[in-house]
């Protein structure tokens, strides 16, 4: 039986609601799943010959792929008409909300349904903990944040909806009363990361987060001072873990302040701005509550499908019976960009609510771009103070201290995580024997900040790399030489006190940067600047973590009797090429590119029967040891497609499944076709077999076509499909399985089901399972990719207009699964870095995006004319060995571009900017006044 | 209300009664189901919504649809991303976009395809010198926003389509 998206039913009980993802019976040929299955059955698959993405044809022909493309009439079995929902949001967070004024609609445009805070309270809606805060601002309270929803209005058809939104566009639909202070809430998280190494790099640390645990201050200032944490050690009887670490941290700072003439100490502040992910498809969803079946169906485009399903189920799980579905069926579409902004977004909750209030009518909720600016999660604005001490004689860092404050906006979302990830990246590519970093994420009335490409690290590494440039200019010391002397060596300890478990290739990156003409010829370029133009060159490096510390991979691979390959994985396609990467990784084991790749399939893995419990970040070792006795238990089942994990995690389970299909399906078939008996030593030589031009090759034996192998594997009831689960907490889980009677199969997976011939999947119990220890949660990261950037800028003296004349990015990412997609992602990361450094900015509060008036044009992102299209060079280092595992690279390229630009601007103008973005007006002013910034 | 007739990819639609303030983007996506035309910003800044308008004089141009009323397209013939492939065969541009891995999420692809197609047709009518090619492509495509790719591969794809058929698009003997 060929694997199809329709053949699997997921039935987990969440909040008393069955989550299901099946297709409806009797679906039309072009049902949702078929549209979303890349490359589309029967179509030309450009990836077969590495001539394009596996979703290439669909995307150049305008196929329905994105959530915003679907209407009720596109969904087989749904009613044909679509109702449309309009969200009204607060543009004020300093006055009391007194209710709605919908008089602009008149009687003719009265909505079919109106959903407010009172309505959701009345039916017993629960707010998932992650989104804690009122879903809608209650009347007679001050909105928690700018852009907080006030109401959902549902209209029977598009025409009414369109007229209503026109009528309300300029209307004062929200009534506000007296002025108040912004709503205060506790901060989102405060942490201190302090490490002091032993007398030698190999010696145990005196203190480190891995050794001593993560610590938080226990005391906070009282309002009206913003409830900031009190970092200083207090003479208090509790919180001794913090007190000990804080004492050591304060000593590091005291040492930096001693004015030792042998040590150059720089102490600088740096501010970054709030920006929008600006993925091109605004968030959109389609929802239908079929009251007869008591089933809620949703079409969504999110990076975190499992979380979305879980959150909607929780939200409605205790609602009144009339509005509590028994079953929720989810359909996940490709995303028109993500960049983190679709990871854990509350948008699906509102789409689900809209549907529950108009039973039996499919309803569409779609953001306009104004809405998206007003409500979509943002990249955190950081305020940072960084102190660095460098021994003048050696040019080596002796101590480092930093304080970070993040504006998290209205809801907590991922603010605490962004704070800790940013802090752990604050040392970039460097080693410091002593470091002390505090970080604090706070609530504000701004639009909620959350996950976005860079995730705290682009902020802290920009502050670092510009400071390093200043150090080098002050010592003075060549910037490449400084980086060589201070780069974290392989095996060296990160801020948290652990070493990376992947290649650390800083020396090669630095060699490449130093040898590149942009760097080599920088003095000549400066000297040869045309009249009226200032020319400068900048360099910067970044080491970017990938992974979140609790990453899951679900993947299955099936081969039919004709040799057609199908892959399903739980990762989401948002442009990152996960489908193509998975197909390429599987092809290494099965000889050809898959004919069908289905992404965002959290439903396809029922045969594994997975169960979970607790929180993978907080579970104790004792609890994990006990829980793993259940062979179906895993620390987490599915995770978001985020944190640059596409290649590393997203393709992992499918690759492991493919290895099993080969070993226990195709290889025995090959032996049979070659007439090699099991007793022959050759029978165990499966690792030596190679695929070449779609045929399996062994020296001295006839090459075998995949189709023949597949047919024989089916005929002899071999393994023709496998599905696996993997879990990564800075290391993979591993287990052994008995697939046949001869040997145990050990792999970096913790669950396995196999299908023999054309039978059904059968789950195999694991033995010798090893999950990464729970104290690995103290690790900041064990995975990092490195990138260096060079940029040459030309600044027009009279106007401050800046042009990037040339640029070079060099990165390493292990084995690039889809090299052209890696290059494309790198180019896109470069462009996003340029936008962040020079163009993009959102005011945090009033006058910012929360007022609903922001859009493109006012918000500037990089256009082609802002970039050196024909002088942008990207180099990807070859893997250290042919089978080096792929490493995440979706974020790292963007990061060094930002400080490299600022360093180049300094080189050109002598102006040191310490905030982002650096606009043309700022440049013109700085050049005119000659003031170093 | 106005009654309009629009030819989309060679198929006449209408007459349809539309409100004066109904946007062409909503007309195409909500009433005709032509969702290959995307909605990006609604203010004419990203051009993910751009379509091709075929004028009576044989020349074509692109137009945003998000800020233009449907009523203004009455009597016009337009092309969208759904109309590029003929008889199941992708156009040279579509193939080049795929071969160059020009797009990632693909949401801006329809706009780029339409703009580049209009450019190709313009060059076929009025070939340019080889030396002007990159600049011409850059000027043609610069209004289109892409957040994923950095634009490089889009431009390379268009350039390669031109160079692969240089006798059609470039002036003979031009530098």
From TrEMBL, chain A:
<dbReference type="GO" id="GO:0016491">
    <property type="term" value="F:oxidoreductase activity"/>
</dbReference>
<feature type="domain" description="Aldehyde oxidase/xanthine dehydrogenase second molybdopterin binding">
    <location>
        <begin position="514"/>
        <end position="868"/>
    </location>
</feature>
<dbReference type="InterPro" id="IPR037165">
    <property type="entry name" value="AldOxase/xan_DH_Mopterin-bd_sf"/>
</dbReference>
<dbReference type="Pfam" id="PF02738">
    <property type="entry name" value="MoCoBD_1"/>
</dbReference>
<dbReference type="InterPro" id="IPR036856">
    <property type="entry name" value="Ald_Oxase/Xan_DH_a/b_sf"/>
</dbReference>
<dbReference type="Pfam" id="PF20256">
    <property type="entry name" value="MoCoBD_2"/>
</dbReference>
<dbReference type="InterPro" id="IPR046867">
    <property type="entry name" value="AldOxase/xan_DH_MoCoBD2"/>
</dbReference>
<feature type="domain" description="Aldehyde oxidase/xanthine dehydrogenase first molybdopterin binding">
    <location>
        <begin position="262"/>
        <end position="487"/>
    </location>
</feature>
<feature type="signal peptide">
    <location>
        <begin position="1"/>
        <end position="25"/>
    </location>
</feature>
<dbReference type="GO" id="GO:0005506">
    <property type="term" value="F:iron ion binding"/>
</dbReference>
<dbReference type="InterPro" id="IPR016208">
    <property type="entry name" value="Ald_Oxase/xanthine_DH-like"/>
</dbReference>
<keyword id="KW-0732">Signal</keyword>
<protein>
    <submittedName>
        <fullName>CO/xanthine dehydrogenase Mo-binding subunit</fullName>
    </submittedName>
</protein>
<dbReference type="InterPro" id="IPR008274">
    <property type="entry name" value="AldOxase/xan_DH_MoCoBD1"/>
</dbReference>
TrEMBL record, chain B:
<dbReference type="Pfam" id="PF00111">
    <property type="entry name" value="Fer2"/>
</dbReference>
<dbReference type="Pfam" id="PF01799">
    <property type="entry name" value="Fer2_2"/>
</dbReference>
<dbReference type="InterPro" id="IPR002888">
    <property type="entry name" value="2Fe-2S-bd"/>
</dbReference>
<dbReference type="GO" id="GO:0051537">
    <property type="term" value="F:2 iron, 2 sulfur cluster binding"/>
</dbReference>
<feature type="domain" description="2Fe-2S ferredoxin-type">
    <location>
        <begin position="2"/>
        <end position="84"/>
    </location>
</feature>
<dbReference type="InterPro" id="IPR036884">
    <property type="entry name" value="2Fe-2S-bd_dom_sf"/>
</dbReference>
<dbReference type="InterPro" id="IPR012675">
    <property type="entry name" value="Beta-grasp_dom_sf"/>
</dbReference>
<dbReference type="GO" id="GO:0046872">
    <property type="term" value="F:metal ion binding"/>
</dbReference>
<dbReference type="GO" id="GO:0016903">
    <property type="term" value="F:oxidoreductase activity, acting on the aldehyde or oxo group of donors"/>
</dbReference>
<dbReference type="InterPro" id="IPR001041">
    <property type="entry name" value="2Fe-2S_ferredoxin-type"/>
</dbReference>
<dbReference type="InterPro" id="IPR052914">
    <property type="entry name" value="Aldehyde_Oxdr_Iron-Sulfur"/>
</dbReference>
<dbReference type="InterPro" id="IPR036010">
    <property type="entry name" value="2Fe-2S_ferredoxin-like_sf"/>
</dbReference>
<protein>
    <submittedName>
        <fullName>Aerobic-type carbon monoxide dehydrogenase small subunit (CoxS/CutS family)</fullName>
    </submittedName>
</protein>
């Amino acid at each position: 039986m060929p694997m199809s998206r329709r053949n699997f039913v997921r039935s987990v009980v969440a909040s008393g609601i069955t989550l299901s993802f099946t297709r409806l019976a009797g679906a039309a040929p072009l049902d949702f799943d078929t549209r979303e299955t890349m490359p589309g059955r029967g179509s030309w698959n450009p990836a077969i010959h590495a001539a394009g993405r596996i979703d290439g044809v669909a995307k150049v022909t305008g196929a329905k792929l994105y959530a915003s493309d679907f209407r009720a009439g596109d969904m087989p079995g749904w009613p044909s008409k679509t109702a449309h929902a309009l969200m009204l949001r607060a543009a004020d967070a300093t006055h009391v909300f007194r209710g709605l004024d919908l008089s602009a609609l008149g009687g003719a445009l009265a909505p079919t349904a109106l959903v407010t805070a009172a309505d959701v309270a009345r039916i017993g809606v629960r707010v998932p903990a992650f989104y804690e805060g009122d879903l809608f601002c209650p009347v007679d309270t001050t909105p928690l944040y700018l852009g907080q929803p006030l109401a959902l209005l549902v209209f029977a058809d598009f025409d009414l909806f369109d007229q209503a939104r026109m009528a309300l566009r300029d209307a004062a639909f929200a009534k506000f009363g007296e002025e108040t202070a912004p709503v205060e809430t506790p901060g989102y998280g405060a942490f201190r990361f302090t490490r002091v190494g032993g007398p030698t790099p190999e010696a145990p640390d005196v203190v480190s987060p891995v050794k001593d645990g993560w610590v938080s201050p226990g005391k906070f200032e009282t309002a009206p001072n913003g409830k900031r944490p009190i970092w200083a050690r207090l003479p208090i009887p509790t919180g001794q873990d913090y007190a000990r670490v804080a004492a050591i941290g304060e000593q590091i700072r005291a040492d930096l302040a001693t004015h030792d003439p042998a040590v150059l100490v720089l102490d600088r502040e740096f501010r970054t701005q709030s920006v929008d992910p600006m993925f091109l498809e605004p968030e959109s969803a389609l929802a239908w509550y079929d009251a007869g079946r008591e089933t809620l169906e949703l079409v969504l485009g999110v990076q975190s499908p499992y979380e979305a399903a879980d959150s909607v189920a929780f939200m409605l799980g205790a609602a009144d019976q009339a509005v509590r579905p028994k079953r929720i069926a989810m359909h996940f579409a490709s995303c028109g960009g993500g960049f983190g902004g679709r990871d854990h977004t509350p948008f699906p909750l509102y789409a689900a609510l809209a549907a529950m209030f108009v039973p039996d009518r499919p309803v569409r909720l779609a953001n306009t771009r104004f809405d998206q600016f007003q409500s979509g999660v943002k990249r955190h604005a950081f305020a940072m103070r960084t102190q660095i001490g460098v021994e003048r004689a050696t040019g080596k860092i002796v101590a480092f201290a930093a304080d970070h404050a993040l504006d998290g906006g209205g809801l907590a979302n991922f603010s605490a995580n962004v704070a800790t990830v940013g802090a752990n990246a604050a040392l970039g590519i460097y080693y410091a024997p002593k470091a002390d970093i505090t970080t604090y994420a706070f609530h504000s009335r701004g639009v909620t900040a959350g996950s976005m490409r860079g995730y705290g690290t682009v902020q802290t590494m920009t502050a670092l790399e510009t400071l390093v440039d200043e150090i080098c200019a002050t010592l003075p010391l060549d910037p490449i030489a400084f980086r060589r002397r201070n780069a974290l060596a392989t095996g060296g300890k990160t801020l948290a006190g652990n070493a990376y478990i992947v290649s650390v290739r800083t020396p090669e990156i630095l060699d490449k940067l130093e040898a590149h003409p942009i760097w080599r010829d920088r003095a000549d370029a400066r000297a040869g600047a045309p009249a009226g133009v200032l020319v400068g060159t900048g360099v910067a490096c970044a080491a970017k973590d990938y992974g979140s510390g609790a990453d899951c991979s679900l993947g299955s691979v099936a081969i039919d009797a004709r040799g057609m390959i199908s892959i399903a994985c739980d990762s989401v396609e948002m442009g990152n090429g996960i489908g193509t990467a998975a197909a390429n990784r599987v092809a290494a084991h099965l000889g050809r590119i898959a004919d069908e790749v289905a992404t965002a399939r959290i439903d396809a893995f029922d045969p594994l029967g997975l169960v979970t419990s607790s929180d993978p970040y907080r579970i104790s070792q004792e609890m994990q040891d006990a829980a793993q006795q259940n062979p179906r238990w895993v620390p987490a089942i599915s995770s978001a497609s985020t944190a640059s994990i596409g290649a590393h995690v997203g393709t992992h389970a499918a690759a492991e499944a493919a290895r099993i299909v080969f070993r226990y399906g195709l290889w025995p078939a090959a032996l049979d076709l070659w007439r090699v008996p099991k007793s022959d030593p050759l029978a165990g030589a499966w690792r030596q077999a190679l695929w070449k031009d779609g045929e399996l090759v062994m020296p001295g034996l006839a090459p075998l076509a995949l189709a023949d192998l597949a047919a024989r594997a089916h005929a002899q009831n071999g393994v023709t499909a496998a599905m696996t689960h993997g879990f990564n907490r800075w290391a993979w889980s591993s287990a052994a399985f008995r697939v046949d009677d001869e040997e145990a199969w050990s792999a970096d997976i913790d669950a396995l089901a196999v299908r023999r011939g054309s039978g059904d999947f059968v789950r195999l119990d694991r033995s010798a399972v090893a999950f990464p220890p729970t104290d690995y949660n103290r690790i900041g990261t064990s995975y990092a990719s490195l990138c260096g950037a060079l940029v040459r800028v030309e600044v027009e003296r009279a106007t401050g207009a800046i042009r990037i004349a040339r640029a070079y990015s060099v990165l390493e990412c292990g084995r690039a699964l889809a090299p052209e997609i890696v290059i494309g992602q790198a180019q896109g990361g470069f462009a996003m870095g340029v936008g962040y450094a020079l163009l993009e900015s959102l005011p945090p509060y009033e006058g910012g995006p929360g007022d609903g008036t922001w859009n493109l044009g006012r918000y500037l992102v990089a256009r082609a004319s802002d970039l050196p299209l024909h002088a942008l060079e990207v180099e990807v280092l070859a893997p250290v060995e042919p089978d080096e595992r792929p490493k995440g690279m979706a974020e790292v390229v963007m990061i060094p571009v930002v400080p490299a630009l600022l360093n180049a601007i300094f080189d050109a103008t002598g102006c040191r900017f310490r905030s982002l973005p650096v606009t043309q007006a700022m440049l013109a002013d700085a050049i005119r006044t000659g003031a170093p910034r | 209300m106005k009654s309009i007739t629009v030819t989309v990819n060679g198929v006449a639609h209408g007459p349809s009664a539309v409100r004066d303030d109904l946007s062409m983007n909503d007309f195409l996506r909500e009433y005709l189901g032509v969702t290959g035309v995307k909605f990006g910003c609604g203010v004419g800044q990203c051009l993910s919504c751009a379509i091709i308008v075929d004028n009576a004089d044989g020349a074509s141009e692109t137009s945003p649809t998000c800020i233009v009323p449907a009523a203004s397209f009455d009597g016009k013939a337009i092309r969208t991303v759904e109309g590029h492939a003929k008889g199941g065969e992708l156009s040279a541009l579509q193939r080049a976009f795929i071969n160059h891995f020009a797009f990632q999420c693909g949401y801006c692809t329809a706009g780029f395809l339409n703009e580049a197609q209009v450019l190709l047709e313009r060059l076929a009518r009025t070939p340019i010198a080889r030396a002007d090619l990159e600049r011409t492509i850059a000027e043609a495509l610069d209004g289109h926003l892409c957040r994923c790719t950095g634009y490089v591969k889009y431009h390379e794809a268009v350039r390669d389509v031109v160079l692969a058929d240089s006798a059609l698009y470039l002036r003979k003997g031009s530098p």
